[in-house]
Records
---
Amino acid sequence: MNQRLIRELEHLLTRENVLSRPEDLLLYEYDGSVEVARPQCIVFPRDTSDVVKIVQLANRYQIPIVGRGAGTGLSGGALARNGGIIVSFARMNRILEIDIVNQRAVVQPGVVNSDLSLAVAHAGLHFAPDPSSQKACTIGGNVLENSGGPHTLAYGVTANHVLGLQLVMPDGQLVRIGGKSLDPIGYDLCGLFVGSEGTLALVTEVTVRLTRLPEAVKTLLAIYDRVDSATETVVEITARGITPAACEMLDGWTLRAVEAWVHAGFPLDSAAVLLIEVDGMREAAEEHALQITEVCKQCGAREVRVARDAKERDLLWKGRKNAFGAVGRLSPTYYVQDGVIPRTKLPQTLREIDRIGKENGFEIGNIFHAGDGNLHPIILFDARDAEQFRRAVSTADAIIRFCVEMGGAITGEHGVGMEKDRLMPLLFTEADMALMKRVRDAFNPAGLLNPGKIFPIGKGCGEVRIRPMPLAGEAADAPRAESSPS
Amino acid sequence: MNPQATLAGTRLNDIVGSQNVICDAQKLSAYAVDGVIPKAAARPGTAQEISELVKFAAAENLAIIPTGARSKLGIGMPPERYDLAIDMTRLDRVSSYDPGDLTLSVEPGIPLERLAAILAEHNQFLPLDVPFFERATVGGTLASGVDSPLRHAYGTARDFVLGMEFVTGDGALAKSGGRVVKNVTGYDLHKLMLGAIGSLGVITRVNFKTFPLPSSTATFVGAFASSDAAAKFNLAVHKSPLRCQAVEILSPAAVASMSTNRVSTVFGRDSSNPFFAALSVAGNAAVIARSERDLHSLAQSAAGSHCEFTRIEDLQEKQLWTAIREFSTTLQARPEAAIIKVSCLPSDFSAFFDESIIAAKKHSTEIAHVFHGCGVCYCLVFSPQNSPSDLAACCKELLDRSASAARNASIPWCGPELKRDLSIWGVPREDFPLMQRVKQAFDPHNIFAPGRFVGGL
């Protein structure tokens, strides 16, 4: 039956657009998280009609189907938790329309985030959401995870930039919602589908807002001898109502790891740095840079450097955006968390993370979007050691619980996926989740689209209806932890 | 069971207390929606009471419309059924406010003006400069989906509402989102509640991101010879480094409608330049001075003629923005009129303007335009002969034309007569079946504002 499905897919898409050899499947077990799940096959649709046919076929075989962009996600969103077909949008990567005058673009989901910005840079525009993985991650993935990035502090997350979608519903129906014009009539369906983690529909086309590049950009590096001084600076900047374009923090451990690889110019003896960017009209950027420098110094910054030119600025950002790559050199596996807290709670939360780490025997690095209170504690561990893996997860959970106690949330931009589903009850009651499930079931009634995501898998839960299909000639493997390929 | 008897009975009194139940016919007329008067109104004081009211209504199959200050209840189709008004004005507290985090949580019955005063104490605000600002509540503002000129810089409520609690059609109290400025936990169900005119549930709490008040603002007004010149100027502003808070274009008829009251002195009397642009910029003195300089040159290169921008201040400035904000509500003085909202791309404005003028003439109606430069036009259409059929024909033509031109059009403000002839939401589009599924998931018994929303939802 499985072989027959694969032959049918090959017939539909031609053989070079279907992968099903065991060594191919291994490559799609992973995303950027610590989760692992193996699909039965991977297909590469070339256009929307291919996607419709794939969904119809999957329905006929009652096999799960999971959309995937570049696989850079950090919560297992693009993994086939219950097996099935992974629909990779890697080959649907054309920019369909660029409307410079109205600052819009229509793209296929497989377009790489930074490629869109590059394509419109000549007109002084860019696509504002800028996840650290922007050189690899796709806009389709950004849409379904509602991705953020450093500059979302001033420019908003993906949801603020998506105006329309073409969807292939789990029953194979093709629907357009929204479009280039503002305020579509009726319920804000785009608002619902963006960030739905691929559980409601597959996205085959995205209409986005483009944003004007700022006239002036100033990038500051504030250097601290105490972590508390850095976090207090963030509290003070926020309280004074200065909104930088970005406000990132790297603690001493992380900046040393980064510096060893990227040579961004982070001082090795510091306890923390803040990478702060202000932008806008020349006159405003100048003023904000001065105000922020003053706050940094008042809060105890040892030094505040201003990037002299684009080259220096790019280097600082390279240090920030390649941080996880740098950490990957130090440890076979690391676990990045994504909790959010009110900005006023930043100092005490960082102290608590440090305490939780020490209590559990981990040194935890912090590199995060300080300006919007979105933490990314990094726990290094060796996944080959099952006990260490278990302890890493429980340590991360303790951090998340603290974030929730502070009035925060369990994920700011990575998504719940199959990584934090069990933590959903920390934020949501049975009634909250029951309504969310009703909404999911309204669009994905058979649960074949991206099963096992967002909602805790408990007894009697819908997700367990779907049995993973075994590979051809092989027993189904239970998901297991392995070292990450990064 | 006879609903009248049920409502007059003790159950509502049990839930909210008899002093908070209104059954008197005269008092109930204040809760009328398009002439339909409910059988009772209840004034709950807690979310729990709302949950009980909804459970009761679901069991008895009573239709509910939640109300705030009742300034925008006319937005929507007439209700198919309307038994119980849930008056939200007792839920008017600030639940929490963390100025240092720029986050806020409020009950929906709080008036915008009172909330603005609380935020202003901390030099903060919400960019909800909406019609009926002096009366409207937070809940009604969000549910009605009205927008504000400030959307140019701050977006609409969907961009700064962080989370919500609400009661769904089975009486369950549910929530989505959270209180922090960045959050992707779970589905963003609260976005569905925005502009849904109460058809999915009763909002019981709203969490906002607040914004720092700009250190100073300035308003500039300039005049243009044609809609085309004004539209080109708008595009030039979009393309420029200027960061405006609001960019508005007013047609000659819109200016005339405003000139009859408070703001006549704002606009020049040069009949060769009858289109006006009004812009608000925020920032330090250098930003404002630079903006003024740039506006002159942008206008010149875009419109091809010399264009003076005048800075207006104090009372004049306030009156201008009030007049723009309340443009839709001037309709109250004109019963034979309607406001059509048309979203079109900024580059399409001039074409839309010309088409709408032709349509208005064809149906012996007149039309006035206030265009948010980001691409939303409010058109006041009225029949000087007081002819409802002319008005309806013009509105229908504008709705139909918009549908075929990939614009989004609806009629947020009009009298109930017009709604007999056409749907103010236009013809449902291909996404309508998805909306039906949303409605079914939230309101399975169809008790919330039945028949009022798109396609009879």
---
Amino acid sequence: MRRLKSLQLLYHATVASFLAPVSLFVLMAITYLPIPYTQYHTLVSPIPLVGIYFWAIYRPIVLQITVVFLIGLTNDFIGGALIGLHAFLYLTIFLFARAQRRFLRGQGFSAIWACFAIILLAYHGMTWLAYTTLEGQLPFPALPMILNTVVTMAAYPLIIYLFMKIDRRLQRSESFLV
Amino acid sequence: MNNRRRRKFSVFDRILAVSLSQRVGERVLIGLYIGLALVLMVASSLSKNWVHVTQTQLSDITSPIFSTLILPVRAVIDRGYEVSGLQNLATENAELRLQNQELLQWKDRALALMNENKALQALTRLDPLPRANYMTARIISDTGGMYSKTLTLDKGKEDGVKQGFAVMVPEGLIGIIIETGDVSSRALLIQDVNARVPVVSEDTRHAVMLAGTNTDKLSLKYLDETAEIKMGERLVTSGRGGLLVPGIPVAHMVQSSKDELYAKPLAHYKRADYVQVVDFGRQSGIEEF
């Protein structure tokens, strides 16, 4: 019986540790699917940020910094021109959200959402700054940036709802196992 | 209650071996990763070659994933088009009838011009342009973003795709193949800030270089100040640079309300799931693009 329980624990821990990276990879894949949302703009919004933000606040233990770094790097190699930019930004945002998780968990949904909006703006600002500094691209892509922000903010509640479901399920199985 | 809950989580901490108490090791890792990310950023801004090679190798691995994920998405989008298409069926039908009549007139004119062209080529002993080879490829991922405009296609070296092949849709040129993997390839779109296409205005024959701006406005470089190009005039490839054959439609001239001149692409990949990868037998000028 004890052996069975250990096996169940091991299975649960494996599932839990794979869930965060897999969920982030799926979000990243969705980002790069050629989905038109207007005739000339594509859905290339930083949706994986929502996942990183969620795991950093609610279950940082299942998301290691190596995974965050690798997801960012993969993101860069799939779609970016500046390699390392998303690796840097995702890692920084993950560390920031994880450091603030006690404060954020004490807030309501709207406040957490608003904090994400600030993080998103910082992300866009830093991305533009990096491209301007290293690639010399000065024109500010205002319209795509607004569209990206709107799409990401609109996707936020849906993604968080799904992730909350996953998290509750994990919590339930944990309470059965321990 | 709180103590009990804390005990529960500490079991998982041990099993997962990612305890937050391992602060020192983690700090070293964070420093390493941030340093590595910054070095990579600078290195990729200095040289794009290694970036493109790695990106293509990775796209060979990820292309089956994207190809699978795109199926349900495309199904939903196609269903949406079907519904909106049904609503506009009568109007669209009337428009198509008119268009068909116009196209039949154009066909007669094209045949006459083709015969005239052949006769003139024979008279002047002009070597005809090499015959183009066409291949259809599916767009599997839209790998661009706000700061780069690229597409990943599901055809690679194994299908005969090479660097420098043109990427087109029926309306005209949309980009060029810049990197090829075994089963996938990456196309740089004409909107990308690194893209340059030598073109000529179709009627007034003024040469100009189209430069991408990461938006749908293509800037006009090296345009003679005295040049008078008509608004709406088409810009077609000039064939200079040796990469593309002359005469491929690329963009048309637009004047903004602030009197700013720019070109707008004639073709847009967003209207297509598939593109044509065209071999004009002129890959020597890839570095010119």
